[in-house]
Every structure is written in C-alpha cells, then in structure tokens.
Amino acid sequence: MTFATAASLLASRSSAFVAQSGLTKSASRSMSAFARSMVAKAEDGQAEVVLVGCGAPNRGMGWYHGLQMVEQKCPSASLDYVVEPWFMGPGGEGPGGDDFKQCQAEWESTYGVQFATSLNDLPPPKAPRLALISGRTADNPRLLSEAIKSGSKCIYLEKPGAPTVAELQAMKEEAAAAGVEVLMGYNKNVCKYVSKTRDYAASVPGSHVTFVSNNAYENTAESLGECFERNAEGMLKNMAIHELALLVSFYDVTVENIESVTADKEFSSMQTLAGPSGKEWTDFDKIKFTIKTKNGNEVSVQADRCGGTDSYATVTKDDEEIFRYYMPDEDDKKLVEELTAKYPTAMPYFFTQDPDYITVKERVAKHTVDGQPAEGIATIDVAVETLRVAEYLTPILQEQLK
Ligand SMILES: NC(=O)c1ccc[n+]([C@@H]2O[C@H](COP(=O)([O-])OP(=O)(O)OC[C@H]3O[C@@H](n4cnc5c(N)ncnc54)[C@H](O)[C@@H]3O)[C@@H](O)[C@H]2O)c1
Q: What is the pLDDT of residues 293-319, one digit of tens each?
C-alpha cells in the first residue's frame, strides 16, 4: 500500500468513525496541542485500545493487560494509549512510581504507546476505539463516562464494574443511551477448567458442580484484617464474584430465580477483624454455599482466603467426587513456570490466568472491529445481575453463619 492510499484510508476510516462516535467538529478543533501531537498506530483490522488504569508494573491488572498487548498476544488489539491518572500524577513519587516511569519510557520508545493522564486529553479515534478500564472500582463510573465522551465504540470493563448495583445499572443505561457496548473482564467465563467441568457434568445426569476459588493469605488476624479492609466490598463482591458470574452466565442464577441458598456451616467462617486503620471489618474468610434455582439447577461455590493458589472445580454424584479439574492444568503449568521466571515479582494470578486474559481481550477487540459476537464474554447485563446476586446473598449467608 502506498503512503497516499494509506493516508486516505486512514482519513476515511477516521472521519467515518468520528461521525459515528458523535464527536463534534468543534470538539476535534478544540483538541489540545498534546492531543494533536498523538499519532495513530492501530492497523486495519485492529481496535485502537486505550488502557485506562495501568497501575504499577508487576502489581496492576492493567499493566498485565498492557504487557500482553505490546507483546502482540492479541492480534486484534493495538495498544495505542495508556491513561494513568495516579502514577503520572499524585502517585508518581510514591511506591511503584519509579517502576511505572521505567515502564512508560520502555513502552513509548519500543512500542510507540502514547501516555496521558486523562481520557479527556486523547484525540478523536482513528480506528474503532476500545477503552479497557482497569482502574479502582470506585473510579469506574467516572472513567466510563469519560470513555464514552472520548469516542469509544466498545468498553472492556474489569470486574466487578462498580461498587454497587445502583452505580453499575446507571453505567449500563448511560452506555446504552450513547450506543456504546460494555463487555466485562470476567475471564473465568472462558476458562478451560470451567468448560471442562461443565462438559463433564453435562454427561452425568444428576451430578453436582462446585466451583472452588482460593487465595493465599496467611491465616492470621493481621493478614486477614488487612485483606478485609483493602477489599472492603466483602468476599462475595470481591473474590467470589467470578464464581457468581459463572452462576449467572451458565446456571440461570438471578435474584428472582433463586429458590434457596444454604451455607455449609462446617466449612464456612466469618470473622470481625481490625484492619491497618484500626477500624473493624466483618467478612467471610471462608465460605461455601449451594444455590438451588426455581428451574431446577443446583450448584455450589467455595472460596477460601487462606486456601492456597489453586482454583478448580469438582463434579460429585451422590456425594462422591467423580471429577476435578485445576487451573492451571498440567499443560499450562509449563507456561506458568516460564512466566514466573520472566517476571518473578509479579502477582502469581497473572500467570495462571494468562491464556484467559488473552482470550477475553482478543474476543472483545475483534468484536470492536468486526461486530461479530464475542463468544462467551460476559456483558454488563450479566455484571449487573452478578452484583445483584452478591448483594442479595451476603446478608443471608451472614445470618446463617451467626
Ligand atoms: N480479572 C481478574 O482476574 C482481575 C484480577 C485483579 C484485579 N482485577 C480488576 O482490575 C481492576 C484493577 O485492579 P488492580 O488490582 O490493578 O488495582 P490497582 O489499585 O492496583 O490499580 C488501579 C489504578 O488505581 C490507581 N491507583 C493505584 N494506587 C493508587 C492509590 N494509592 N491511590 C489512588 N489511586 C491509585 C492507578 O491509577 C491504577 O492504575 C479492578 O477492577 C479489579 O477488580 C481483575
């Protein structure tokens, strides 16, 4: 392709998309010099990804998403922009600030990624824009509004999406009114252990599935108190939210369709512990429960803050376990070892879920470009119902465990 053809293709694609995204001419005329200096990077067939909330290297979920994109693991996603309000602002001189600066310099020089402190500073899209929002949950309502205003065609929203059902519902309505689609980073929806377990259970009539999720916190009042305070939304909205999304996506679980929920009192444990601030928090450090739906489904979830690093699922028949599948499985353990050796200080869950993060991003980016269905990806409707279920279950389970 000659430069002229490429330029005219870019111009036509750009103007068509600007018109579609509703950005006015005056808005693009009033673009800052900073925005005008930014250049397009996404190629034909790629979404122009804006990563919102990169976070600190080795710590932030956003950083890992960015890494997978600059390493070209997702062919339909071009990481064109990173928006990082904290580490390029007030947090720049604090913990993680230097690591972030180093990462920024490398991604700018090696991969041509452009950095900004706000979505409001970006120029209009030159290709179908996908905003991947991986900020702090409390900031998401504002970030989603800004992503819509900056011309995003689609938004990839990290779980759980918002602190409350009311906020997430309002975000859903705002996006729908603007004609912008919102898909969720519920990666366990596309995970191998989940599909293998569901397939096996489907072949055994009368069997029962339990999804198990573990964290590796130390089992001390200090460690759990810190965990309770940092994840103050509680275990169901924070840790077990992935499993609740599975129940909503695959087992028809909705607040209206729940017939009963029963805590396993022997397994479960609820504690009131002081966090680092001195304030006390009541939460589950372990929870196991079974939900029956009005249309005859039955499924269990088990989550343990101090259970280790594995997630897995089991199938039982007549109370006997007949199947178990781990994440990672034997095939993926090699990849986990390789990634751990390459990034020894990074969060371990990046590596066990590495293939699933790639799958979700690629499907969402491809969908942003060609509009074909993003198979298995949770929508914001699923996310709203998932949060509703979490808010509904928490007081019921707390009551049962008193
Ligand atoms: N899908 C998954 O498996 C998975 C795993 C972990 C996190 N997440 C989700 O990803 C999102 C980001 O999580 P994270 O753990 O990377 O969050 P994080 O708090 O480490 O970083 C998110 C953003 O918060 C800002 N920030 C960081 N420290 C700050 C501070 N001290 N004060 C103010 N702002 C600060 C930064 O802008 C950063 O980009 C959340 O929605 C989380 O639920 C998903």
A: 999 999 999 999 999 988 999 999 999
Mean pLDDT, the chain, whole residue set: 91
Q: CATH number of the domain that 319 lies in?
A: 3.30.360
57 C-beta closer than 6 A to ligand 1:
no
**Helix and strand counts by DSSP (H, E) for the chain:** 15, 13
CA of 34 to the centre of ligand 1 (A): 26
* Each residue's pLDDT tens digit, 8-63: 333 333 333 333 333 433 344 456 777 777 767 899 999 999 999 999 999 999 99
Dist. CA 131–CA 315, nearest whole Å: 38
C-beta 304 within 6 A of ligand 1: no
Return the pLDDT at 36: 72
Number of domains in the chain: 2
Q: Rounded distance, CA 243 to CA 236, Å?
A: 9
- Dist. CA 43–CA 285, nearest whole Å: 47
Strand ranges, E, within 28-151: 47-52, 77-83, 114-116, 129-133
Query: pLDDT per residue over 121-156, tens digit each?
Result: 999 999 999 999 999 999 999 999 999 999 999 999
Please tell me the distance between residue 241's alpha carbon and the centre of ligand 1 in angstroms: 16
Do 207 and 259 have their domain in common?
yes
Contact 157, 140 (CB under 8 A): yes
185 ligand 1 Cβ < 6 A: yes
CA distance 202 to 205: 7
Domain of residue 50, CATH code: 3.40.50.720
Residues 58, 331: Cα–Cα separation, whole Å: 24
Q: Closest residue (by CA) to atom 4 of ligand 1? A: 61
